[in-house]
Amino acid sequence: MPPRKKADFDAAPAVPTRQSSRIKAAAAAAPPPAPAPPVKKAPAKKAAAKKKEVEEEEEEGEEEEETKPKARSRAGSRAGSKPPSTTKAKAPARKPASKAAAKKTVEDVQEEDEEEEEPQPKSRSRAGSRAGSKPPSTTKPRATSKKPATKAAAKKTVDDIAEADEEDEDELEADADQETDAQPTGKRRSPKGYRARAKPNSDAKAKPKSDTKPKSTGKRARAVTPSDDEDEQQAKTASKKAKKAAAVDDDAMDEDDEPPAKMVSVLKRGAAPVDPESGKVSTHQVYANAEGVWDAMLNQTDIGANKNKFYVIQLLHPIDNESSCWLYTRWGRVGERGQSQLKGPWPPATAVSEFKKQFKAKAAVPWEQRVGMVAKKGKYFWLERDFGDEDKAEEPSKKGKGRKSEREATPIPDSSLDAEVQDLCRLIFNTALIDAHLSSMNYDANKLPLGKLSKNTILQGFSALKQLADVIKDPNGEVAKANGGQRAAIEHFSGVYYSIIPHAFGRNRPTPIGDERVLKAELDLVDALGDMEVASKLISSSTPRDESGAPMNPLDAKFRSLELTRMEPIARASAEFAALEAYVNNTHGATHHFRVGVRHIYRVERESETVAWKKAGFDRLGEGERMLLWHGSRTTNFAGILKQGLRIAPPEAPVTGYMFGKGVYFADMMSKSAGYCYMGLSGQTGLLLLCEVAVKPFYERYDAEYDADKGCKKANALATKGIGRTQPVNWKDAGEVLGNDALKGCHMPDGPCDNNADPKAYLQYNEYIVYNTAQIRARYLLMVDQK
C-alpha cells in the first residue's frame, strides 16, 4: 500500500484494512479458541513521529531502493505483526542534535558510502520478516550506530578503536574458502553495528538489492564471539572507519589476502626491519629505546579449529623524528599478507604503553615476561628473533647517498678464487635454493626470517617435538592423559610446535604430527634450520671489503666468512681424484635407483676440528681405528657445516627420531649418504663430505636402539655400528691410495661391496654413529650431479 499522505498524520487512526476485516470475519465464523488479534492503532504521537521521519528521509535521500514504501507496507501488513516503531525515542538516535551533527567527520561520510554497497546478512533480514515478530523500523535503526547520539560519541576517532581481534581473520578465512549460496542460520552482527533491514515476505516475487550477493572481496561481516578481547569489541563497531583512516597514511593498510612472493626484500634500518607490507619501509623505522626493540612477531596454530595465523606488532616513527610513534599491526593466515592497521601518532611513552597493552591482549603475558613464555590455548606465541647483528649490518648505510654513489662508482674486482671454489660458493650461498628447501618443508621464512632466527627458538622447537615423541611412543602415558588422550594431545602439541616454527599450509588444515615418519621430517627441518640460519647470516653480514678497506668480490667475501684453513680443488687428472671417484662408483647400493657423476672434489680442513681431534688424542689411534666415511646433507646446510662443523642434536630434541640415538651419522656407501642431499631441490646437484672418523672399537647393533649412545659409552666403544646386509668386503689404507700422508692408517673400502652372510643383519647398509664431534675431521668435499 502507498505511504500515508502528509495530511493523514494529524488525523485519527485509519479504519481497519481489508486484511484485518477478513481476519475478523474469519474469527466470527470460526470456533472461539483462536481469534486473530486486532491491529493495534498507532497513537497520535507515534504518527507525528513517523511524519517527522518521512520528512527526514526525503531531505537526506538515503536508503534508496531498500526503503521503498512497497517493502515497508508488506513488512508491516503481516497478520499479527506490529506496525513499525515510530516512537520519538528513536528519532534522536537516527539524527543527532544539530550541534553534534555539525561534527560529523569525513570518516562517517566514507562509512555511509561503503555501507550502502555492503551486502547485508540474509539471516538478519529474514529474521525481521517472520510472522508475529516485530519488524525493524524501515530505515532509522540502521543509522543509529553510524551517527552518534551524543556530542562525545560524535568525537570518536580511530585512536579510540582497538585493533580488530584475531577472530576476525578466522571469519575472513572461512568466507574466502567458500562462496556459499546457503542462508546463514543465526543472526550475525553486521559491520559497524548497523541493523539489517527486513526482508520482504517469502511469497514476494521481487527481491531487494540487498539480497543480491556481490562478488566476494574477502572482507565480510562476522559474528561476535564472547571470547573477544575488550579492546577488540570496540573495533567491531567501527572497524571500517579505522581502516579508512589508516589508509590515509599507508598505501598497504587494507589489501586482500594474497600469497606474498617467496623472497621479500627487507630494508634494514635501525634496530629491526620495518614490516615490508606496511608501506613505511622508506619513510619510517622501528622504535627502540633502553627497554629494547619495539617489534613483535606472534604466531598461533590450533589444528582442531584450523587456525594457523600470525600477528605483527611494531612501533614506527619517521626516520628523523623519534618524538612521534605509530602503532602498526598486521594479522592474517600464515603464508598470506592478511590485513593491517595503523594507529596514532603518540608520544613514545604513550606508544610504548599501547604496544604493551596490545601484546598482552594477544599473548596473555606481559611484554616483560615474553622470554621463556609457554604457549597458551587460544592465544598467540611470541617468536624470539635475533637482532644482534642488525646495527653492525647498518653501519655502511649511515653514510648516506654518498656511500651508495661511491659503491656504484667503484668497479667490482674479479674473484681471486679458483673457478671450482666459485662454483661452490654460488651453490651454498644461493638464497633461491634456501627458499626452495624451506618451502619443501612448509617452513614460512616470511614470518620468521632465517637471519632473525634465534638459537632459543630452535631449542623450543625441539622441545615441542620431544613432547610429541612422548605421546606417540606412549599413547596411554601421563602426557597423553593430561591433555585429553593421544589424539587431543597430538593436536595440542602439534599446534604448539607450529606456533614456534611457522609453517605455511595455505588454507589447508595443519598436519598433525602423529607418527614417527612425520616427526622425523620435522626433526630434519629444525636441525636444518640451524645450518641455514648460519648461511643466511653469512650472506647478509659478509662485507665486500678487505682489512684495508679495498673492495672485494662478493663471492670472495662470502668465502672468507667461512674461515676455513683449507679449501683446494683437486685436479681431475690426478690419481687422488681417480681414487675418490672410484670410491663413489664402488659404493653405490643396488637399492638406490639413481646415478651420480663427480663434478668437483676439494680438500678441506677446519682448524677447530684439528685442534679438538689432537686434544682428544685421536691422532694416536692404531691402524684401522679411523675410517674415511660419507656424510650427506642438503646443499643449503653446507655453509653452516663448513663454518661450524657437524653438530649433534641438543638435549631438547627427542631420541625417537634417531635410530641409534643423538649423534652424527656416517655411511660407507656413497648412495646411502646421497639420499640425504635432496638434489632435486638444488638443480640436481649435491654435496657430500668424506670425513676421517675415529670409530673403533665398535658398539655393534643389528636393529634400532634409540639410546645407543648410552650403550656405546657403557661398552667403552667409540662408535655405534648398525650392521647392514650389504657392505664393503675389503678395506685399504686411504693415505697410501690418495697420496695423503695425514690419512695414513685411516681405512677406506677397497673394491665393490657384497652381501653380508650374517643372518642377524637387519639394516640394508652399514651405519656409523659417533656421539662426540671431536671424533670428526672433514677431509674432502665432493660436488656431484644426479643423473
TrEMBL record:
Entry keyword set: ADP-ribosylation, DNA-binding, Glycosyltransferase, Metal-binding, NAD, Nucleotidyltransferase, Nucleus, Repeat, Transferase, Zinc, Zinc-finger
Top-rank EC class of the record's enzyme: transferase
Compositional bias segments (type: Basic and acidic residues): 200-214, 394-409
PROSITE patterns in UniProt: PARP_ALPHA_HD, PARP_CATALYTIC, WGR
Ranges of biased composition (kind: Pro residues): 30-40
PARP catalytic domain mapped to chain residues: 553-787
Residue ranges of domain WGR in the record: 283-380
Region entry Disordered, spans: 1-258, 391-415
Subcellular location per the Swiss-Prot or TrEMBL entry: Nucleus
Sequence ranges of Basic residues compositional bias: 186-198
A Pfam family this chain is assigned to: WGR
Main subcellular location: nucleus
Gene Ontology, cellular component aspect: nucleolus
An individual GO BP term: double-strand break repair
EC number, UniProt record: 2.4.2.-
Domain of life: Eukaryota
Protein name: Poly [ADP-ribose] polymerase
